Amino acid sequence: MTAELLVAATAAARAASALLRDARPRAIDSKTNPKDLVTEWDLRSEEVLRAVLEEHTPGVPVLGEEGGQGAGTHRLRWVVDPIDGTVNFAHGLPVWCVSIACEDAAGSVVGVIAAPLLGWWFEASRGGGARDGHGAPLAVSAIDGIERALLATGFPYDRATNPLNNFAEWEHFQRLAGACRRMGSAALDLCLVACGNFDGYWERHLKRWDVAAGTLIVAEAGGTVTNVAGGAFDPEAGDLVATNGAIHARLIAELARVKRA
Fold first, then answer.
1. What is the pLDDT of residues 130-164, one digit of tens each?
2. CB proximity list for 116: less than 8 A, separation 6 or greater
3. Which phi and psi angles does 85 have, rounded to 5°?
4. CA-CA distances (angstroms) from residue 185 to 9, 152, 209?
5. Given CA atoms 48, 50, 53, 57 in this order, what sign does their dihedral have?
6. Is 209 helix (H, G, I), strand (E, B) or coil?
7. In the CATH hierarchy, which fold is given to the domain comprising 2-132?
8. pTM for the full model?
9. Which CATH topology does 146-257 take?
10. Which one, of 205, 188, 206, lies nearest residue 197 by Cα?
């Protein structure tokens, strides 16, 4: 069954990538927060994803960022983000992706993430490892010190008013780590941990569709994924730390040391 799910996710990711590759947003709206953007292409991409997944796996419901939870009582569920990094997409910055995962009661079974304008492809299946677009296995880095690590993070849309806006953590690691980056796509941040470009990533206020595929890809590439306190990762809780494993305990400890104003 896993192979069939991966075929379905691959087909959906390719269809959405083909739709979006030459897309130029005309109508850019916002959700409840003016910084949380949505374009007509987010909606069209999700329509394509739902159609392809229904064709390959009829009756399996789809949870999408734009359309919510589809009807169904199947033991499986698709979780899709039609464009992760919509702000980048809306501004013509090519750092965005399509993210697709299929979950069962134990978590993600397969995950596919495609960044069509960058030519990046990442996929994983539970117990089957993680691979790039050429079929080469992904592996996390071997960096074992925060002082040499390249870290990534993100900030919530309500960062102007939210006391957990990640500003203090960002400043802390800018002083401590080798370097820090903010890419604007949680799914791609996770993939870059999986392939060893980033050594660690932390963020709060995430949604299930942001991380369902990426966390599986990290785990299957040999990385570690937990919540920000080092406990079991819960995709509904919205916070996570993903690393190469070697710096995980130190990153967790440093997050706990951060003092907020």
1. 999 999 999 999 999 999 999 999 998 877 777 78
2. 17, 18, 20, 21, 97, 98
3. 105, 40
4. 19, 10, 12
5. negative
6. helix
7. Fructose-1,6-Bisphosphatase; Chain A, domain 1 (3.30.540)
8. 0.93
9. D-Maltodextrin-Binding Protein; domain 2 (3.40.190)
10. 188
